[in-house]
Write a structure and sequence with these properties.
By secondary structure, the chain is mostly helical. The chain has helices spanning 15-38, 45-60, 68-73, 78-89, 95-108, 115-140, 149-198, 203-214, 219-234, 238-248, 252-267, 271-331; strands spanning 9-10, 13-14. It has twelve helices and two strands, in the order E-E-H-H-H-H-H-H-H-H-H-H-H-H. It is extended and about 95 Å long. The two termini are 50 Å apart.
Length: 332
């Protein structure tokens, strides 16, 4: 039989096969991108609908935990009760610890405070589970037989530390991303609040209007403003709704807005002028952050310039001269 000539290889891999697989993945990614662009959904629709349902329940006096609509917002289940009882028996559940985790959950955008018990339970269980799994995989099964004692001990310790700090790191990362998104849209939201206030809308109507207008561009900010508008409509003290907004967002600018809103509610000062001053300050801060990033750009670009651009430039410039010198030496 005549053997077919093998295709070109690179580092032991068939170049044609690898190229075919990569081309297929690229085509699949393009199809998924087109599908995602065509099927754009409003990120605020489901959230606002759930919040409006909750408002209607509170107005009607429906406060029982057996209804499914209440369970969509306050998901207190038997699982959290069992976890809370077990942690209470182990003497590891403290009120200050629960409040700290609830604050982090609020910053990350989770409304259900009962999740704090599950987070604390995961911090107690995950180190044991991951530590045992790492011990079995590294010491018993010997997945990495070439590793020395220090590498094995370090890997198991890293798994235990990851199990303990993993939930907290996840919440911190999500909270930081959410805070950044809210910070980006806050100046625009204040401008719209000024326009709504000057047009004669009430505070809750202004917040609701801003939430609808900015819901697509800034879903996190629109979610917070929609929830604040709903709380303003049924809470006995309007100040509590503003304080809840400051509790849910880890941003000093939002706390400043809340303070301004509370003062205008208490003393009757003009709302539009105060919000206009705050909006100007926030826009100046955003411009200063942009200028700071632009000023850091030359220093950041120095390392890629030295590592990637200059060597290629030297090869392009000195390569032909080196080839000519080499040819001259060979002919001599």
């Amino acid at each position: 039989m005549i053997e077919q000539p093998a295709g070109p290889t690179l580092l032991g891999f068939d170049v044609v096969m690898v190229g075919t697989v990569l081309a297929g993945l690229a085509a699949f990614a393009v199809i998924m991108a087109i599908y995602a662009a065509v099927t754009i959904k409003d990120p605020m629709a489901k959230r606002v609908q759930s919040l409006n349902e909750r408002r209607e329940q509170l107005k009607a006096g429906i406060v029982t935990s057996a209804t499914k609509k209440r369970a969509s917002l306050v998901r207190k289940s038997d699982t959290t009760d069992k976890v809370k009882d077990q942690l209470g028996k182990m003497k590891v559940l403290q009120d200050s610890q629960i409040e700290a985790v609830q604050q982090k959950l609020a910053y990350a955008g989770y409304r259900n405070k009962e999740l704090a018990v599950l987070i604390i339970g995961l911090r107690a269980v995950l180190p044991i589970v991951l530590g045992l799994a790492g011990f079995l995989a590294i010491y018993i099964i010997e997945v990495f037989p070439d590793w020395g004692p220090m590498y094995r001990l370090g890997a198991v310790s890293a798994l235990v530390g990851l199990g303990y700090k993993g939930p907290e790191l996840y919440l911190s990362n999500k909270a930081s991303k959410r805070t950044l998104e809210i910070q980006k849209g806050l100046p625009d939201a204040l401008d719209l609040l000024v326009i709504c206030a000057e047009a004669g809308l009430t505070v809750d109507a202004s917040f609701n209007r801003v939430a609808k207008e900015l819901g697509r561009a800034y879903p996190e900010l629109g979610d917070e403003f929609a929830l604040t508008a709903i709380e303003l409509s049924f809470l006995n003290e309007r100040r509590q709704a503003f304080n809840n907004l400051a509790y849910r967002v880890n941003l000093e600018a939002v706390k400043g807005v809340v303070t301004t809103m509370v003062q205008t509610e208490r003393y009757g000062t003009p709302l539009a002028s105060a919000l206009r001053v705050l909006s100007a300050e926030f826009r100046n801060e955003r411009m200063m952050r942009a200028e700071e990033k632009a000023a850091r750009l030359p220093a950041i670009m120095t390392v890629p310039l030295i590592l990637f651009i200059l060597p290629v430039l030297f090869i392009v410039i000195l390569g032909p001269a080196a080839c000519s010198i080499n040819d001259a030496l060979l002919t001599d």
